C-alpha cells in the first residue's frame, strides 16, 4: 500500500495534525470539499501526467490515491500519460466521492 502524502506539501505524509485543512481528505468531507481540495492539490508545471515519486511527488501522490481506491496498478499512469493534471484530478474527485458515499450515507 502506498503512503498517501499531504495534498499541499507532498514531501510530508497526509495527516489530520497538519495546520492546513486543504492538505487532507476527511471521510466527512462533502463532495464540494473533496473537489476543492483535489483541485488545489500541489502539482508541477510539466504538461502531461507521469508517475515519478522523486521528480513529481504531487502528481505521483494523486496517482497513488487513485490506485489505492480503484485497486488499479501503477501502470494505470499510462492511461493518463497524455492527459493533463486537471483530467487526473477530475477523475480522482469522482472516485473519492463514490468511495466515500456509502460511508457518509449519501
Automatic annotation (TrEMBL):
Cellular compartments per GO CC: mitochondrial matrix
Organism domain of life: Eukaryota
Biased composition (Polar residues): 8-22
Pfam families reported for this sequence: tRNA-synt_1b
InterPro entries (alphabetical): aa-tRNA-synth_Ic, Trp-tRNA_synthetase
GO molecular function, one term: tryptophan-tRNA ligase activity
Location of this chain's protein in the cell: Mitochondrion
GO terms under biological process: mitochondrial tryptophanyl-tRNA aminoacylation
Cytoplasm keyword on record: no
Keyword set includes ATP-binding: yes
Principal cellular location given in the protein's record: mitochondrion
UniProt keyword list: Aminoacyl-tRNA synthetase, ATP-binding, Ligase, Nucleotide-binding, Protein biosynthesis
The enzyme's E.C. designation: 6.1.1.2
Chain residue ranges for the region called Disordered: 1-22
Entry similarity comment: Belongs to the class-I aminoacyl-tRNA synthetase family.
Protein's recorded name: tryptophan--tRNA ligase
Amino acid at each position: 500500500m502506498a503512503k498517501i502524502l499531504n495534498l499541499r506539501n507532498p514531501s510530508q505524509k497526509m495527516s489530520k495534525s497538519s495546520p492546513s485543512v486543504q492538505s487532507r481528505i476527511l471521510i466527512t468531507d462533502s463532495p464540494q470539499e473533496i473537489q476543492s481540495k483535489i483541485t488545489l492539490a500541489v502539482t508541477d508545471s510539466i504538461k502531461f501526467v507521469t508517475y515519478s515519486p522523486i521528480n513529481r511527488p504531487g502528481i505521483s501522490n494523486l496517482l497513488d490515491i487513485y490506485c489505492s481506491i480503484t485497486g488499479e496498478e501503477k501502470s494505470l499512469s499510462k492511461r493518463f500519460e497524455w492527459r493533463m493534471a486537471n483530467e487526473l484530478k477530475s477523475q480522482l474527485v469522482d472516485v473519492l466521492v463514490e468511495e466515500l458515499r456509502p460511508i457518509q450515507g449519501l
